[in-house]
Amino acid sequence: MGRCHYSGYITNCSFRFLISEKWYEARGAVELETLRLFNLSRWALALVIALNFAIPQAYAQGGKAEPLRVQFRRGRSSATIAGKLRGDQQAEYVAGGKKDQKLTINLDARPPGSITVNVKTPDGADLELKPDSKQQWSATLPGDGDYLLWVVRSSVKRGTSLYKLTVTIR
Amino acid sequence: MASVAFSSTLGDEYQRLFDTCQIRPERLQEVESLIKNITQNRNRYKAVGDPLGIPWYFIGVIHCLEASLNFNKHLHNGDPLTARTVQVPKGRPKTGEPPFTWEQSATDALQIKKLDQVTDWSFPATLYRLEGYNGFGYRVFHPEVLSPYLWSYSSHYTKGKYVADGTFSLTAVSKQCGAAALLRRMAEIGTLQFKPDGMPITGVGKDNGDGNTLFDKSGPLIRFSKKERSPLVEELQKILNTFPGIFLKVDGIAGEKTSDAFKKVTGRFLVGDPRA
Questions:
Q1: Domain identity same for B164 and B51
Q2: Rounded mean pLDDT, A117-135
Q3: pTM over 0.80
Q4: Which of A19, A50, B100, B232 has the highest CB neighbour number within 10 Å of its CB?
């Protein structure tokens, strides 16, 4: 069962695999493969939307009530996550880090500026991020443990934002 | 990850919430229909739960929440049994080849949460395990929302929900009945039986309600006594004090005054009162 990226319905529509076998590895967290969608033709998008509306299986289960762990591939210090947020939704991720490591967050949002990222330390305090550029922020980690990344829309009004978040810890 | 340790304070909170839980009247029919379906499959839940030492109703309510009582779905998260899970937890069961039987999958789902190692199935501990099955994100990150996984359809829940794995919305409203709400109604209508000490009869192993574990075989919880103090008597005295014209000292002793007040309300003295 997966969540249609466009309709928002939980669906068993197998056509999503036409786009990518790893279409939706985890609800709320879309892997790199999904980014190809950004370059899909209008017709392909329309087809996916139509198929997902045609076979809506509106399960109301929701999701696991815990942040998704940022998965760094072996030997890599960066991971990229993409997703979509509607209205007041916020995506929650967790990444392990050690004292004095540098955390860098690169955020590409559509519409631009519609997404912000807040980071909390393992103690629950806000981590102050310093801007490196318009799309990039960084901070030195104050201690060992899991850091919580909250990806939120700048406005909670109706609307949808897409984001691509690259997290680097080294 | 958000982990929360069970404590007596947390247990008290679960007990208080369960004690004060009221099913929303407009949802009552739906809740009872779900309970009927869960109860019909009791033997199937027992077949998985008994070897693991897990009560059938615990599995039943999880099945309701994760898979809408569909036996073609994984108990982990409602993904189809024709493949390993795709959503969190991903790639389960690790062993065997799909399609999995519901029993195979359910056993795996319960074991990865180490529920087969649990021995305390009191209601507070049960609610703690149920909340943990979904995740403690509400409690840790959104304490203004009592987990709908437990309390949806009850007086304890209005809005706020993880709409997908790791994605929270404060305005989204759960359209599923919570596990605690289901258990509360099960207790109300007698689907679940309780021992005199308040522990549910789990049906696991020898805990099947035989012998002296049932109320009707062990007699009333409160008996006339001028000497013994009991928290149960305190509770009774508090309740009696809510009736007009009754003013009792809440001392936990079921003596003559308490028995008199009891008679004013029920027409009978307490069991054991020599005046009875």
A1: yes
A2: 94
A3: no
A4: B100
